[in-house]
């Protein structure tokens, strides 16, 4: 709902009037989580996410100046398509804390997802366990860049849920 700003104004003949201004509404078109990794590790992080999550790189930004001894330009940020969502991987600084956003990914094979992540360098955090209520399985890993990933199997729908009206 738009907010209204009410202001008093005076006309040329000295009569008081009320002016109502409506704020422009804002529409958001996308939510893009940003994973901030240590400086100069964006390329490694992108390679990890491509390997483990089959992410597809859809865009990238390179640092315009590079040192003569660098073989490849420095990757500053990259946009990845991960499970239908755009995720931005970007280089942080000492002032920005890295690895602080846990993410949940739904998969039909939690054990395989955990094994693939561990094989690529992630650390398994907890044993797979049953999730209460939906009967789904969950596994948790921390990637080499400090992010925690929670893999869950789809919750089983009950007959009551199928009959719900939204």
Topology:
Elements: E1 4-10, E2 16-22, E3 34-37, H1 42-53, E4 56-62, E5 75-82, E6 85-91, E7 103-106, H2 110-119, E8 123-130, E9 137-142, E10 148-152, H3 159-162
Parallel strand pairs: 3-6, 7-10
Antiparallel strand pairs: 1-2, 4-5, 5-6, 8-9, 9-10
Give the end-to-end Cα distance, rounded to a whole number of Å.
22 Å
Trace the largest sheet across and list its strands.
Answer: 3-6-5-4
Structural class: alpha+beta
pLDDT < 50 stretches = 128-135
Element string (H = helix, E = strand): EEEHEEEEHEEEH
Textual characterization of the structure:
The chain is an alpha+beta fold. The chain contains three helices and ten strands; from the N terminus they run E-E-E-H-E-E-E-E-H-E-E-E-H. The chain has helices spanning 42-53, 110-119, 159-162, and strands at residues 4-10, 16-22, 34-37, 56-62, 75-82, 85-91, 103-106, 123-130, 137-142, 148-152. It has a four-stranded mixed beta sheet with strand order 3-6-5-4, covered by helices on one side. It has a four-stranded mixed beta sheet with strand order 7-10-9-8, with helices on one face. The longest helix has 12 residues, at 42-53. The chain is flat, with a radius of gyration of 24 Å. It starts with a strand and ends with a helix.
Short structural summary:
The protein is of the alpha+beta class and 166 residues long. Helix content is 16%, strand content 38%. The protein is flat and about 80 Å long.
């Amino acid at each position: 709902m738009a907010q209204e700003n009410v202001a008093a104004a005076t006309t040329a003949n000295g009569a008081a009037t009320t002016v109502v201004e409506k704020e422009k509404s804002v529409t958001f078109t996308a939510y893009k989580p940003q994973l901030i990794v240590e400086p100069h590790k964006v390329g490694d992080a992108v390679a990890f996410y491509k390997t483990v999550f089959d992410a597809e790189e859809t865009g990238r930004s390179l640092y315009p100046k590079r040192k003569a001894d660098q073989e490849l330009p420095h990757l500053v940020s990259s946009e990845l398509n991960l499970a239908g969502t755009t995720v931005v991987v970007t280089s942080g600084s000492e002032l920005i804390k890295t690895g602080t956003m846990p993410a949940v990914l739904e998969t039909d094979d939690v054990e395989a997802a955990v094994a693939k992540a561990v094989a690529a360098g992630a650390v398994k955090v907890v044993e797979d366990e049953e999730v209460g209520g939906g009967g789904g399985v969950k596994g948790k890993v921390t990637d080499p860049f400090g992010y925690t990933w929670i893999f869950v199997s789809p919750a089983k729908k009950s007959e009551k849920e199928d009959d719900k009206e939204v």
